[in-house]
Model the fold of this input.
Amino acid sequence: MVDDMVIARKAQSDPGLRPLRTLRAAGGRMALTAALLGIGLLAIGVVGAASAQEAKPARDTNLSGITRSADGGAVILMYHRFGEDHLPSTSVRLSQFEAHLDELVNGGYRVLPLPEIVSALREGRALPDRSVAITIDDGVRSVYEEAWPRLRDRNLPFTIFISTAPLDRGLPGYVSWDELREMVQGGGVTIGNHGHRHSHMVRLSAEEQRANIDKAAVRLFAELGAAPEIFAYPYGEISAELRSAVRDAGFEAAFGQHSGAAGPMGDHLALPRFPINEAYGDMERFRLVANTLPLPVREVTPNDLFLRTASQNPPSFGFTVAGPIEDLRNLNCFARGDEPAITLLDNRIELRLSRPLAAGRARINCTLRADNGRWRWFGTQFVVSSEAAIAPPAPTAGPAAAPAAAPATATSE
Done:
């Protein structure tokens, strides 16, 4: 299990890298080969969380005495690239990004540091209504050159999930370790683990999965003085085996790329994020997703989202909606190119697809209009092996039709 320990280290010359205090590490498993690498004992900690601030309109960071959401959830946004118009599937235009940030600052949202949201979800504390976190995956150069200045000017906290191999290799198009330290020192920036290599981790062996996680933790510790408590799955791909590796590594929370609002009942090691890109970065969609509420679910099946054999595809997908909620007969569920048949038995939802899923990543999204006019959203992403899949359908002129309340989900790395 997870033990508490106090990790001490020598003071860093960089004032923005705060000394580690009481941190959590996963017993002997977290020892790794840190001694052989010459960095001492490895800990799991959050870099920069203590200095993160809310958006300027919310002047205090004390969450007491403010309006709280009855659902206790938050929306977590996910970006990759900024102003890289030649890569529209993973980039947003700078004009789009500035409009998003202005909406967050002026639209009555509460932009909070991601570790603060994680802590509230884990402890069952209600979050402010319309809580939002901003996350960025991979650490490409446009984060440093374009996103960070705009976020800093608006005093908005954000998290970068870093794959460490590109930084170690000094690959063009990525931030350097010095630039990453500069952002952390500036305050409001937290760092998450994204694996050493940005690989399809569900397809690795258990030993390779853990090595990829641990190497990133070692490198982040060596360069920043702490290793993150939060993890983002590359490509948002999650399997039962990989989730276990993340759990055993001692992470407090982990994030996918499936759409939906994060709620207190959600799996803390498979929390949703809304991917944002150029095609799905217009203000109508942005306001829709930024205002979503969690659909409180439990008993989600199947347990493993990695479909390896044809007998698992299409999956028998189901979940139970917890507690009193709006009329579930109004629930809409969809997948690209398919509209699943929905069976409702009390609060249990069972979905049956009309045909197997194509190879790669496949999402199912379920939405329900809440009584306040906003939308509850629960999404799931499956990973389908070539052995389990059929040939993909012929390409169409645009994204598959989806309910007006739930635009198609952005493609992401």
Summary: Confidence is low (pLDDT under 50) at residues 1-70, 394-413. The longest helix spans residues 206-224. The first strand starts at residue 3 and ends at 6.
